[in-house]
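As described in the Methods, two query proteins were run sequentially through the folding procedure within a single session, without resetting any intermediate state between them. The first query and its resulting structure tokens are shown here.
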Amino acid sequence: MRHRVPLILLLAPLLAAGCTADPAAPAADPSTPPTTPVPSAPAVDYTAWQAGRSTPVADKVYPARGTDALDVLHYDLAVEWAPSTRTLTGAATLRIRPVRDAPNLVLDFMPYQLDGVTLDGTPVTAAVAREKLTASAPVVADKPVTLVVRYHGRPRTTPMPSHRKDVEDLGLTVTKEGGLWTMQEPFGAFTWYPANDQPADEALYDIRVTVPAGWTAIAGGTPAGQSGTTFSYRSADPVATYLTTLAVGKYQKLTAKGPRGVPLTYWYRKGADDDLVPYLKKSPQYLAWLEKKFGPYPFPSGGVVVVDSASGMETQQMITMGGKIEDTRARRDRWGSDLLHEYAHQWFGNSVTPTSWTDLWLNEGWAKYAQDLYTQETLKLSAASLDRYLREGDAALRKKLGPPGRPDPKRFAEGNVYLCPAAMLREIHRQVGDKTFFVLARAWVQDQRNTQQDRASFIAFLNERTGRDFTKLVNTWLDSKTTPKSIKVG
């Protein structure tokens, strides 16, 4: 981690309560013989969003967030931000595949004022309570439906379940100037749109954001044009809710080309973020290094937006980086290294996503190890120094925070899920050698692109690709309370 069209028309409250027969409709003529119904094509062709199909699972770390009862295929979000009143107005259209029969649909959502909710075009009763939106309409397993939610209100954040000093509350944050930004790992997308806010349910996205003249709106995905003051973005690759982003401000724009001509866009605030521009411009260099190690960048575009945070987040295709850095050269150098870390997540975590937060190590371990390898290579550090750093750090973090494979829900994304699995990957690297290790790393992200994975699938992958049994090594490194001794894999 860290880490459209404007909505003008609001449905009347009466519509949200349900639908009734139209008294002005003509009565049926009893003398007219009934006709045989002619089968018609479905009103909505859901095959267009099959790339957003997932197999959601209940998350054991944060069971109150998300559900395994539904699979969102596609989010179409049209939002409008009014800085003068700090009001967000939205229309969210969700294409949903129910996983099982249910009397209603339940999604995570901040208690905005509901202006109208429809299911397949029919108004339905809906309410928000305890950060859950419940639309009262029965659904049938594997019969997709379209839910439209219109709403408005003032955004609010939600607490971050961590003791880290470099993170703020989660979700849509309003700046003192009237802008917006968000970081939402492990949850917080629900602070600006109704969402199945858990990592196993990835979906496709279309996002349109309308802002006043002079303001810029930035979101994840590939830029899809601008009409007036409405900015559009599209994600043709599935995205987990925690990897979506939104930022509104008075931004400056820079463009560049990455490896193989991948378009890159950088957004920064003139004056406030000037010191960071040289690091933004190093993005093609960071991506070229990562491609050499792990294969082609997995998305059609990339970029960075700088916000008022002390952290960074690997939001998909548009990284959200905090601009609050100490005014020292050492800290700025670390900012560039952290940016490379977030770029590494585009492969590890974004393209290949964990099934649940139990396996956060699968994201952070790989990104941290990539960052360490880059630092070792650019600073010409010895292999022995890297080994010593990882082992000493591993011992201290396990003692303080416990093993990385058993995360504490109250200590999300703390150091043990970064460095300890990086130390495990270092051990695997040492045992298989450079050539085999990078073949494995490349295959892990390239062959399983746009999938959700977990510990069991990672072990199975290692064992199958190497012909050796890494089960004990991986389980020991993930579950041991102390730094494991070397486990030789035959």
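Immediately afterward, the second query was submitted; its sequence and tokens are:
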Amino acid sequence: MASFAQTDEEVFKSIYKTTLTNGKSYNWLNYLSNQIGSRLSGSLGAEKAVAWTKEELEKLGLDKVWLQPVMVPKWVRGAKEYAYIKSSEGKTTTVNICALGGSVATPALGLKAQVVEVHDFEELEALGSAHIEGKIVFYNRPMQPDLIQTFEAYGGCVNQRYEGAVQATKYGAVGVIVRSMNLRLDDLPHTGSMTYNELPVEKRIPSAAISTNDAELLSAMLKLDDALEFFFRQNCKQFKDVLSHNVIGEIRGSQYPNEYIVVGGHLDSWDLGDGSHDDGAGVVQSMEVLRLLKATGIRPKRSIRVVLFMNEENGLRGGNKYAEEAKRKGENHVFALESDAGGFTPRGFSFDCTETTFQQVLGWRPLFKPYLIHFFEKGGSGADVSPLKTNTNVLAGLRPDSQRYFDHHHASNDTFDAVNKRELELGAATMTALVYLFDKYGVNTMPGGLKN
């Protein structure tokens, strides 16, 4: 049995060897992706995933496994969307679109109107109602390709997807088409959440994503013929909230059972693919962390929880509910780690913590270097663990190589075949190693010494 008498290097070797030679994360992901499939909040797939992951966690012999009720939105895409560009000569060109999550439907026979291309909300405001009323707004700001941090590129343009309809409605637009959040040119539209804020239902306009290839085409055609029309049809629908659950498993701490370490990912996914990278990978990696602790004989000092959050994609209800219950119970969460950036090769972590704690973390970096995982950055963690933030605890996010992530993100090619077994397992081992360190050493909140 492993013990804290072993060196950290020896424990690391045991963790990595165990998952790379006898891991379960890849087989778990295979079942989650190929037997259950997409898991949009409120769907049958999401509920099947809740039941199955609870059953799998129970098989691990944890001290406690339970479901935490949470009300979630239920939005249904309906029949496959259809769209085309119609030039003034009467020629039509079919293009690839998908409704954005939360969007209203078009009229039953579809919506056809002239198009106005913009790149940001400032340009939209400058054009005003005189140029926009009665037309479809086409947001065509691409992800910035020269940014190495692809999540920064995503953050630089995602507001047009999320708030585009609200902004366009101010000037009388009848619909919105948004360039997919994708760094490469392909024919796959990428969905994602959007909002109407407090806009009355009768004033809401349909919103869809268009593939990057077709966004380029539409932009080029508009330059030649600004009177062309765009047609699209979608019959998505928003229903009343329904009951779902977070899935939680726990290993009780041997010395500090009332100090909690959380590791997790989100169980829900979008509906176009099977959500293997976003976030099936994070789910199975988080499950594997607790399995590895038991398999390598590590008996944690603090209570370690795996939390599989529901509804990260279109509401963050699961993350907020977990934090709300933790606060109500007065639980002390000292560290929380999230995996929600795909199952690619792990490069390191981002940390939301004090400078004193970050210096503590930097002292651990040499342990990860032999595994080529030593990118440690201050700032940022994960959406589902962020509501747990206090002045003294530490939040972190696993940071895999992200160069291919947005090729799959929220699209129909986010499927099991896009995940590499070894990369997925390395991520699980890396998460386990960091949890082990925080459990062993605690959180350094004061200059000059560790807490425990």
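Residues 447-451 have pLDDT under 50 and may be disordered. We note this only descriptively and draw no conclusion about the first query from it.
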